Structures are given as structure tokens and as C-alpha cells.
Amino acid sequence: MKEIKIGIVGSGFIADVHARSFLEVPGARVAAHCDVDTQRGRDFAARQRIERSFADYSSMLADGGVDAVVLGVPNCLHAEMALEAARAGKHVIVEKPLCLRLEEADQMIATCREAGVLLCYAEELCFCPKYVRAKEIADEGAIGKVYRVKQEEKHAGPYSQWFFEPEAAGGGILMDMGCHSIEFARWALGKPAVKAVTCFMDTVLHGERGPLEDDVVMLLEFDGGQTALLESSWALLGGMESVTSLLGTAGVIHADLLRGQGLKVFSAQGYGDYKPAAQGWTFPDYEWLFNNGYPQEDRHFVECMRDGSQPSESGEDGKAVLEIMLACYASAAEGRRIELPYVPPDDIGVPVEIWLRARGRAG
Ligand SMILES: NC(=O)c1ccc[n+]([C@@H]2O[C@H](COP(=O)([O-])OP(=O)(O)OC[C@H]3O[C@@H](n4cnc5c(N)ncnc54)[C@H](O)[C@@H]3O)[C@@H](O)[C@H]2O)c1
Q: Is the pLDDT of residue 238 over 90?
């Protein structure tokens, strides 16, 4: 069996997740790593025992001996790095959100196809064992016809400054975690088309860090009549929440991704990497990587690379999520329901501008 060699780009939160996940993927190995922050990159490579560390992405593509790259870098870099990798003949695992513009999404999909490489969209919620089982039960008909998906992804806000910069992130909580909920709902329902969205958003907690939205509520209407009610927030204190309900005509399924593992801790001073968030009662998830579906996601992508099949989460899915997010910004900006397909105005730089402009007009 040919070993698939992976190059990870970035040394932050998600790079660490993938480095650890690939340890659990048979026949794959992280062989190279790259970060423009050379000290951070060297520390990361040493910590993760990655043989080769590069400061320059093009050099890693040329000399790193990798078959595929994982893009764990700020959102604004996803498109250009994916295109460069595809042109160098490397498969691409791109973190969410896929990119910032629909044209970029089209270009990424077309370029990967022409180059004969896979464009894998890293939406791990579709690989979480608890959510996979919930979907299996629903697909079996156990709760009748599913008419609504509810999904919430919330915490108190991100760690790196770039998440608060419109040019780097493309938007706030919608681009960061709203994309998880949107793709979860599409996947849970078997990916029907979205015909309209209605969205409300605001900046409720992090206004001093910039103008981006940090709290969002979305209502998605699907072909077939199902709806999804999605809430994403950077304004929830007390730790992260990822909860889901599938409501059917003959029953309901509730899933709480991060609780219920049976370990309860009270710490007055906090612990771990994110001490303030770990003060007081916490419920540490000792099987966090597995429960969040990251190794399963990477294993699936490697299997697809090996047998040439299309990944179940692909560039097309990432593009569909981006179009929904753009329509959500328009809905929040205009205070009305927006029908899809949605094409943003030509002069929009990054998605959140659609909403920021309307806010500016409103004074
Ligand atoms: N799927 C998930 O659960 C999940 C969770 C967190 C982040 N993400 C996504 O992963 C991506 C990275 O987020 P993060 O939280 O790891 O960010 P981070 O700030 O923790 O790390 C980003 C890293 O990218 C490096 N970098 C920046 N520019 C670079 C360049 N030109 N070349 C090489 N390296 C460069 C930085 O030095 C840093 O090490 C984002 O797109 C984010 O949305 C996904």
C-alpha cells in the first residue's frame, strides 16, 4: 500500500488537530510542515515529530515530497494556496470556510478537477460518531420524516487576532462557525438545495475587537419543505456548546457533542491551554479528537486519495455553504428573506462587507 504523505500548513489550533489525527490514519504520514512564522513552525514540527519544516509554502510543495496538503491557515489564504497545491499535483484538504468568494470556489473546483487531484472540504461535524449515528437512526426512518434540523455551535470567541479582521477572516462568527451548522444541516438532510434564508446577526460581546458579527441566527428553507434553525455565537460564556436536534414526524433525536462523557471537573483557577474558559465546572472530553470526527475525516480523505473516489465533503459542498453564508449576510443586511441562488454585488470584497455596509448606512 503506497503511503500518502501529508504536508500541513500552519501551526495553530487546527494544524495541531490534523497532526494528531493523521497519527490514527493507517497508511498516511505527516511528512512536511510549513509556517511563515519560522519559530512557531520549528516548534510545531519538533513537537509533532515532523521531519521537514519549511518557511515557504512553494518550497514545501516543490521539495517536501508530499502527496497532499492540509491548509490550516487564515481563511483569506485558502483559495490561493489550494490553487497552487493543485497546480503542483497535490490533493488539497482545505479547512472551513472553503474560501471567501464564489469565483474562488469555482476556480478551486475546476483547477483541482483539471489537475486530477481531490478537493476535500474539512467539515468534521459530518464525521462525528455521535452525529453519524444520529443520522443513521434518522435515515432508518426511526423518527419519521425529518422536518427540522436544529444546530448550535457556540463559545466565547477565538484566540487569534486574524479571526477579528474582515480581510483575513471574511466575516465573523458566520464564517467561523456558522459554516459548521450550515453544512451539518445540509448533510443531515441528504444535501437538498437551499431555496431561501432568513438571518439575524449582531455584535453583542466583542465590539471592542472590531466590527464583525459575533452572534447569528439563521433559518434555512430547503427544497422539500424542511427547515433548519441554526445558532452560532462567540458570545457564549461557560465553555463551548455543540448541540443538535433532528425533529421528525414520529420522534426526535437530541445530541450533545461535547457533554455526557462522564468526567466532571471543578477548577477555581482553570487549566490547560485556555485557562479562563476552563474555570469553574468543566466536562473534559478525554476522547475529544475521536468524538469530534477529525481522524475519521482525515481517514476518509486518505481513502479517497488512494482509490480515486470523490470525498463525501468536497469543494462543491464548501461552495454551497459559502453561497448560503453570503445570502445570510444579505438577509441580515436587508432585514428580509433572501432566495437562492444568490449572487453578491460585484463590488463586494469579503462576505461580511454586505452586512457592514448596511450597518454603516443605518448609522
Ligand atoms: N474545523 C475546525 O474545527 C476548525 C477549528 C479551528 C480553525 N479552523 C480553521 O482552520 C484555519 C486555521 O485556523 P487556526 O485556528 O488553526 O488558526 P491559528 O491562528 O491558530 O493558526 C494559523 C497558522 O497559520 C500560519 N500562517 C499564516 N499565514 C501563513 C502562510 N502564508 N503560510 C504558512 N503559514 C501561515 C500562522 O503562523 C499560524 O501558525 C482557519 O481557516 C479556521 O477557520 C477549523
A: no
